[in-house]
Amino acid sequence: MNAPIIDPLQGDFPEVIEEYLEHGVMKCIAFNRRGTLLAAGCADGSCIIWDFETRGIAKELHDKDCVAAITSVCWSKDGHCILVSAADKSLTLWDVVSGEKITRTTLQQTPLQARLHPGSAKSLCLACPLSSAPMIVDLNTGSTTVLPVSVSDTGAGLPPPSRNKFSDGSPPFTPTAACFNKYGDLVYVGNSKGEILIVDHKNKQVRAVVPISGGSVIKNIVFSRNGQYLLTNSNDRTIRIYENLLPLKDGLKVLDELSTSCDEVDEAEKLKAVGSKCLALFREFQDSITKIHWKVPCFSGDGEWVVGGSASKGEHKIYIWDRAGHLVKILEGPKEALIDLAWHPVHPIVVSVSLTGLVYIWAKDYTENWSAFAPDFKELEENEEYIEREDEFDLMPETEKVKERRDCLRRYSLVNFSCL
């Protein structure tokens, strides 16, 4: 599509299903940093790398030791590596170019999500297991560092109250959401008490606490690409956007200064006071009519839009809001539940995964403005019948030849006359 003929006044968000990708049963997706490649984890344990320009398969990564479904995929910042977590409790780091497995480690619990450190440390990742607290995993050594998920009156990290029971003898635990900040020096943990904990993962220390109104379980927590906004999705059917008040770099240094300047004596209140200076509630999103739960909400690549999928069974609906809180579009797909989605880092494109394993590509329905390309071009709203003159398109070759010969003789005569 040529940029000059696209109406600049159209909203920069997707509107229709442009295409779908099909290969096995895909479960989860992730774009690389530039959006040129799309990784999809499959139910058979393989990871498919799609060339998003040609919509063809560029690479297939398959570990013969893994036959369980993939639970998450994550690209390294430079796009050279990809981290894959699977239902067999494994974490596998792949070299995308060579297709070789770099390292593989096995946890004690199934990782629902795993994210590589956003800095240069590709060996470190943040894993959120099904039935234990989030942990920092060193992929080279297999060592794990469990992060605190709540704060007692003494400030020690304790597990939140149980809401799930497991039959394998493991301690019951509510799955906890967590994510790195932009540069990876802090981890933001959303717990079952409805609190956001800002954690120094190197020292396993909670540095600030931000309570969420209602105290509902936080199911998802994710930063915008520029690191300026934080999104949470809670069990109270509300998506909340917080403005990040900490600097993108040296956040730990600022936290030290805030903690030192705080006059609160009680440790828990002190952490909340510091938290109030780290995050500020910016906007809340919910469907006040249907009161639906949300699934895998996230930001657009530029952070201007917020997108969330409906968690209702049997429907494939995607809601798009602007940052001001206005619902601008509801995308309705086939009658299949939505299990994952991602917004393209650069273009107004959303990719969603259905329960059947298909990947749908949602793009803009462009209206071509040809008058911007050719000012004398007249656009018609509908077809019009044109009535031609009787001889308008008649072709008379002999008559044309006679006329051309006569004109040529006349010009020749005028030239000779002028020479006299």
TrEMBL record:
Compartments where located: Nucleus
GO cellular component: Set1C/COMPASS complex
WD repeats (start-end): 26-60, 70-104
Matches recorded under PROSITE patterns: WD_REPEATS_1, WD_REPEATS_2
Top-rank lineage group of the source organism: Eukaryota
Keywords: Nucleus, Repeat, WD repeat
SUPFAM superfamilies xref list: WD40 repeat-like (SSF50978)
Protein name per Swiss-Prot or TrEMBL: Uncharacterized protein
Biological classification of the source: Eukaryota, Viridiplantae, Streptophyta, Embryophyta, Tracheophyta
Alphabetized SMART domains for the sequence: WD40
One Pfam family recorded for the sequence: WD40
Presence of the UniProt keyword Repeat in the record: yes
